[in-house]
């Protein structure tokens, strides 16, 4: 059979093809058009959900049902028959939830969910041969896996553990009654987060559906001292508008910067064989900066959709302003101004870091850091580029910690030295992240090795030398998970 013409491969999708004319008009792959249209429709649906299905006028069951129906439709629209993978995993998870013993419910759920996800990741290599669709079904499957596993652990905490055996956060999130089928489906497949996430906690979601979400957060603040006699009703409109502006800016950058500097530039003959080292370094930074707007766009829009529905309120800041960042997956300002590797990655894919902490780092009987890195890598997939990134990230993290512990104190004696230190560490951090994360977007072995050979493996060598010759001071045990680069 003759191969499909390359021009048509751009529009390959397993989802709906009704927007194919729009895809051809814009010159954008059909799967990406389907994704954006679905998220925009979800945004309008979220406003409608908040205004016309208010908890004060609508029962929780009705809100659960509408959220689930919309979510199922969006999944089928975007992924077509591939959406069956999500439904199979959800139903297997619920089967374990209602039949497994409480003492083992978290173990069975974790191994089944991660096993199914890993099988899908492996099959993806042989099906697509690295030509991944940007809205490939494994994305939602990864989010569903997070939710299924974290809920199983929280049910286990609520029904089999004593309060004194739990941390404060585990006790707050423990689920003391198994969810009904409708609650389970709504939590995993609701239209606000089924396509691109983020992961959230079951108790927070149920409180949102039942209408107590904002009040739970507001009760933590003494409103009588502020002159209020009743709890205010915070509106998400301002937060949604702000996030939509960021989304629009990210989209414009994606359509211009990302298209101009694709990651394939890093394996061009000019880059590998002709450009000098400093030019390669600068070009690497530009290309990796150009790869970020799609994440900024997708995650910020997803955050805005949840806020538009009334979900995501996190409380009040020190200035008395309402905050809608409970579900935020990134802090762009802190990412772009990060002066340390740690600061950069702890503001990237925040909800995945919280999931890793909850299901692995806090519960691992030994080597929690190593096991958390392994889980993060398996969750992302089986592409070799992921493992290049995580292994490089370990070296860079240890080297950065050694430099900070041994050198930072010498730059704190004056403001000028501190500013110099911040500027230098900002530049080094941005370049180090670009170098470390490049295999993550290149995926395959050959382009990764080609890139690192052209860069003389310089960061690997420098990191190893720093680790060997600078002492790394032991740190007190922390409940924070190790920082990992998450997609």
Automatic annotation (TrEMBL):
One of its GO terms (molecular function) is 1-acylglycerophosphoserine O-acyltransferase activity. This is Membrane bound O-acyltransferase domain containing 1. InterPro entries: LPLAT_7/PORCN-like, MBOAT_fam. PANTHER family: LYSOPHOSPHOLIPID ACYLTRANSFERASE 1, PORCUPINE. The chain crosses the membrane at residues 33-53, 65-96, 108-127, 386-403, 423-445, 451-470. The keyword Signal does not apply. Keywords: Acyltransferase, Endoplasmic reticulum, Membrane, Transferase, Transmembrane, Transmembrane helix. One of its GO terms (biological process) is phosphatidylserine acyl-chain remodeling. It comes from the Eukaryota.
């Amino acid at each position: 059979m003759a191969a499909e013409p390359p021009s048509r491969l751009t529009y390959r999708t397993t989802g709906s093809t009704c927007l194919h004319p729009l895809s051809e008009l814009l010159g954008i792959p059909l799967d990406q058009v389907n994704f954006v249209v679905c998220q925009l429709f979800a945004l309008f649906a979220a406003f409608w959900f908040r205004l016309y299905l208010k908890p004060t006028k609508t029962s929780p069951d009705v809100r659960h049902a509408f959220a689930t129906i919309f979510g199922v439709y969006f999944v089928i629209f975007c992924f077509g028959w591939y959406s069956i993978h999500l439904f199979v995993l959800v139903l297997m998870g619920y089967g374990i939830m209602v039949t497994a013993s409480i003492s083992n419910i978290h173990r069975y759920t974790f191994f089944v969910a991660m096993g199914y996800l890993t099988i899908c990741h492996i099959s993806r290599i042989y099906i697509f041969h690295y030509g991944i669709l940007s809205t490939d079904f494994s994305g939602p499957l990864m989010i569903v896996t997070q939710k299924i596993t974290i809920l199983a652990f929280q049910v286990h905490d609520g029904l089999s553990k004593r309060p004194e055996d739990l941390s404060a956060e585990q006790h707050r999130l423990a689920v003391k009654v198994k969810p009904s089928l409708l609650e389970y489906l709504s939590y995993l497949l609701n239209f606000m987060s089924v396509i691109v996430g983020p992961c959230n906690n079951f108790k927070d979601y149920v409180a949102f559906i039942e209408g107590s979400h904002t009040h739970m957060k507001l009760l933590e603040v003494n409103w009588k001292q502020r002159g209020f006699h009743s709890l205010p009703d915070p509106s998400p409109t301002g937060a949604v508008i702000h996030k939509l502006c960021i989304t629009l800016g990210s989209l414009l950058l994606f359509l211009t910067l990302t298209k101009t500097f694709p990651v394939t530039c890093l394996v061009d003959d000019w880059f590998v064989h002709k450009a000098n080292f400093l030019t390669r370094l600068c070009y690497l930074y530009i290309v990796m900066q150009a790869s970020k707007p799609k994440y900024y766009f997708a995650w910020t829009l997803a955050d805005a959709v949840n806020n538009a529905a009334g979900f995501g309120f996190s409380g009040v800041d020190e200035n008395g302003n309402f905050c809608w960042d409970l579900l935020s997956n990134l802090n762009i300002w802190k990412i772009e101004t990060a002066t340390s590797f740690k600061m950069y990655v702890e503001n990237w894919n925040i909800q995945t870091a919280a999931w890793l902490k909850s299901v692995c780092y806090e519960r691992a009987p030994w080597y929690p850091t190593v096991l958390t890195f392994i889980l993060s890598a398996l969750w992302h997939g089986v592409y070799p580029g992921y493992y290049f990134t995580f292994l490089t990230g370990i070296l860079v993290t240890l080297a950065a910690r050694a430099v900070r512990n041994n050198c930072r104190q010498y730059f704190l004696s004056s403001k000028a030295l501190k500013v110099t230190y911040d500027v230098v560490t900002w530049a080094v951090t941005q370049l180090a992240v670009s170098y470390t994360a490049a295999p993550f977007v290149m995926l395959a072995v050959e382009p990764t090795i080609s890139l690192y050979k052209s860069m003389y493996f310089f960061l690997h060598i420098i990191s190893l030398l720093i680790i060997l010759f600078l002492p790394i001071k032991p740190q007190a045990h922390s409940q924070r998970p190790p920082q990992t680069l998450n997609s």
